[in-house]
Every structure is written in structure tokens, then in C-alpha cells.
Amino acid sequence: MSRASKTKVLLTSGKRKTAIARATVRAGKGRVRINNVPIEILEPKISREMILEPLRHAGDEVWNQLDIDIKVSGGGYMGQAEATRTAIARALLKWTKSAHLRRVFSVYDRTLIAGDPRRRESKKFGGPGARARDQKSYR
After folding, report:
1. In a domain, 97, yes or no
2. More confident residue, 109 or 139
């Protein structure tokens, strides 16, 4: 039997606005990397704290035995942070298959599991944006 068939690998994703995060989870030592950057040195700090929320709620005993690699692209840094935390939360749920953990995430913040469907409204003709119109003058 080959080594690749023995290791369990999970793939999950999370979206927020135009940001997409793809998480790869395997058994390991508790390393979390986002675009090959360890979570401990990720900047800005506010997005790092947001990404760590599902890990804190899951508890150390759950994620300290997992390595999570995340590739995230699109959007701004906060959109990427929200997409990443959704991908991590879904990965933890899929790995543990725990109804208790699902309830904990759902009570804390439902967007950890479900995601936010809101998107940018497209621009229309006659103005600079989706709703704003050019002003008109009669004189």
C-alpha cells in the first residue's frame, strides 16, 4: 500500500464577497499556514485574531493534532480573513464530525459554517456606481 493512500486529507473552502479560501487539512502537529505564512506572524493583527476564532472555540485538543494549509485569494484582507475562518471551521467540523462543535460554532457566529451570501451590486449605466446617478443641470 502506498504512503499517499494511508494519510487522511480533507479539502474545504470558504467564501466572502470575492475572497475564496481553500483549506487542506491533514494529521500533524498543529501548524496553521495561510499562503505559506505561519498564522503566528500573519499581519494585520485584527485579521489574525479573526482567523483564530474557530480554533479557539474548538479547543487545543482538536486542532493541535492537525496541520492546516490555506490558500486564499481575491478580495481585501478582511474578506480573506472571513473566508479563511469559514474554511477552517468547516474543516474542523468535517474532521471531527462533532455535533457539539457544530452547535458551538453556530451559537457563536453562524457565518463560521453557513457563509454570508451578500455580494456587490453591479454597476449600471448613467452614473458612477450601482445606484448613484450623474447630476443634471437645466441651465
Report:
1. yes
2. 109
Secondary structure letter of residue 11 according to DSSP: E
Alpha-carbon dihedral angle through residues 84, 87, 88, 91, given to the nearest 10 degrees: -170
Opening angle at CA 109, ends 107 and 113, nearest 5: 100
Q: What is the CATH number of the domain that holds 87?
A: 3.30.230.10
C-alpha cell at 65: 493534532
Residue 130 lies in a domain: no
Q: Which three cell numbers stand for residue 90?
A: 468547516
Percent of the chain with pLDDT over 90: 68
Residue 124: inside a domain, yes or no? no
Name the domain count of the chain. 1
- Mean pLDDT for the stretch of residues 10-39: 93
Cis peptide before 117 (omega within 30 of 0): no
